[in-house]
Amino acid sequence: MVAGRSRAPTLPGILASAAVLVAAACGGGAGLGERCGEWGHGTLACADGFYCSLAPDESRGTCKRAGRENEPCPEVMLASCAGDLTCNRAFNPPLCTAAITRGLDCTSAACVEGLICLMKPVGVPTCEAPRLDGEACLNAQGQCAGALVCLPYAGVPEGGVCGARVSAGNVCDDAADCQAGLTCNAGFPPARCEPPSEIGQPCGSAPDCKSLNCDLVALSCVASAAAAAGW
Asked: Which of 76, 177, 196, 205 is the most buried (most CB within 10 A)?
């Protein structure tokens, strides 16, 4: 008996699959039970009122009914509430509620669009507008508007103020504070924006050196391992 051979996809089958993708992309998204996430060379989104249920570490899933206002969140770790609702973990179980407005505690739920959950030196975080140029900020919290960064400044309790990236010689917390081509070199006390150091010059980490090799005991740049070996 000759085993049957699997047949290659036919043109009608290929066109049908393509039609599903086009319909999902152009018709407002995929419906209940339909696939969503990363498929082929694109992403399939779910229609309004549904969300893409994904297993951990998976990029493909199926569309499920999203939670309505005051209903339990279908999946707390995903954006599983309908429309502009957010999963509010202040309730037990967490419920789909309106997003948090300006000035209110955002410990357990997301803020309305355009606001950030502003962490503070003391007290609970509240929904506020992104910080503007010269306003106080906490470093590494993404609190500054647009392309502004949180620059170190001891004159405020937050420890920083929002401003444009700084030039060489200015103090910094990390490389994001510095203009292009500079590193935040912790080999200088305090750390400051500088071009990559030559061999023998101060460094606090490998990226501070042109050789990409920093002696972390002496805090000075040394030759790269390849150069030292004569490669």
From this structure: 177
